[in-house]
Specification:
alpha/beta; 15 strands; 8-stranded mixed β-sheet; 7-stranded mixed β-sheet; 35% helix
Length: 355
Amino acid sequence: MLKKVAIALLVLTVLALGATLLFQRQIGQALFESAAEARAAGDGLVFDDGLHLVLCGTGSPLPNPDRAGPCQVVVAGNQAWVVDIGEGGARNLNLMQFDIASIDGLLLTHFHSDHIDGMGPLALLYWTLQAADEPLPVHGPQGIEAVIDGFNAFYATDMTYRVAHHGEAIVPPTGGGAQAVPFSITGAPVVVHERDGLKITAFPVDHDPIKPAVGYRFDYKGRSIVISGDAAKSPSLESAAKGADILVHDALQPDLVAPITRALDANDQANTATITRDILDYHASPEDAAKSAQAAGAKHLVLSHLVPPLPTSMVYPAFLGDAADYFDGEITIGGDGMIFTLAPEGTEVMMRDAL
């Protein structure tokens, strides 16, 4: 009896497999149409009132298939601000179903290529998703005008193609590209935006020889998020992060970069080996980031812009090193798709994953 049942099950399995292969095209078409309908009908990411941090990119210029370049979004009430836009950042926002058309602007911490090389896709989506008649506003310190002028020149021909193909009603000619919104910063923090209870303050950081380089602090309804940009340990960052609910800090672990440098030297790749040595002095280690978070009295430290790439979470303890010895609060190694939520006037930090 059991033998007959086993044979019958085997026959049914073979028939089912055969039918699947025979009708694979039709099944694939139906599955794809169902997925397309579900995505188009979806509500996307929803945010309650409060302060929210979305990690759309936690990687670095070193290749990592699981992490886009540096990218954060801070949502406060009905406002949304992108901070830096590395390669793949806009892709991740799209995958998370974040409403890119709702963005109020892009804030740049500095003009290193890995912090701006995702601006093309972001500006394109901002333009086309809402038929925007004004370009994406890009805020940054002195020098931003030259960056945006170059960006617009680079994409000028592409923008004419979009208008010619889709028509001015879908892509208004005045809405393509980006618009520079400069601010000047020297030694003191400066408020760069204040509206509807949200205050954004830019402050100088130590990323020498890159100048200007800034971080940003977001204050909204009694909660605060600070984003370091690229920064070595410095008093200016610690002062700006006083009492922050979340400090997002770039982090480079020298103990993990060192084996890369040795391997490059051993294989006669002197140029790249020099670069891996040079990057040590203008990024904070996880331990330095922890010391800054402790000095600032921050409540939660989120490490991002991770160097070197971490192929698996098994490497996390080695990456953190002794960081936990220097900070009393919680430390999180950031990952693409993480969302942190801070309810108004509260103390709790809630986390979820959108990728």
